[in-house]
Design goal:
By secondary structure, the protein is mainly α. The chain is built from five helices and three strands. It has a three-stranded parallel beta sheet, with helices on one face.
Length: about 120
């Protein structure tokens, strides 16, 4: 289903969104819906950078890189764990991090990853 394209599926999905949202956000279903949301995101790989399987995420990304000195973009860098793993594998890489959370930005700055053998790391400010 492509919600940006006009059609019957589009109209039905948009019409159902508001009442379904009220049901799912009810006090009875909110917590189970949050658990289901977290699990479905887990299944598609979102959030693996939070530590539960960071090495597998780094390995999966590294398999697709064919250049000795790649340019890496970490969008939603959190505390730069993925970037650190990638820079260890590709010492000549250049990394650009984008992280909106000031707290996470501070952690990235404290790590001082930009210096030394890790290559170039530029946190978003």
């Amino acid at each position: 289903m492509q919600l940006h394209k006009a059609g019957l599926a589009n109209r039905l999905a948009k019409a159902a969104a508001k009442p379904l949202s009220r049901i799912v956000c009810s006090s009875l279903l909110y917590k189970p819906a949050r658990v289901a949301d977290a699990y479905l995101n887990f299944l598609i790989g979102k959030g693996s950078g939070t530590g539960w399987d960071l090495q597998s995420e780094v390995s999966a990304a590294a398999r697709w890189i064919r250049r000795p000195n790649p340019v890496l973009f970490d969008v939603g860098a959190n505390v730069a764990g993925w970037t650190e793993g990638m820079l260890k594998r590709f010492e000549g890489a250049q990394a650009f991090l984008f992280e909106p959370s000031p707290g996470c930005q501070a952690v990235i700055r404290e790590k001082k990853i930009a210096a030394g053998h890790f290559g170039s790391l530029r946190p978003w400010r």
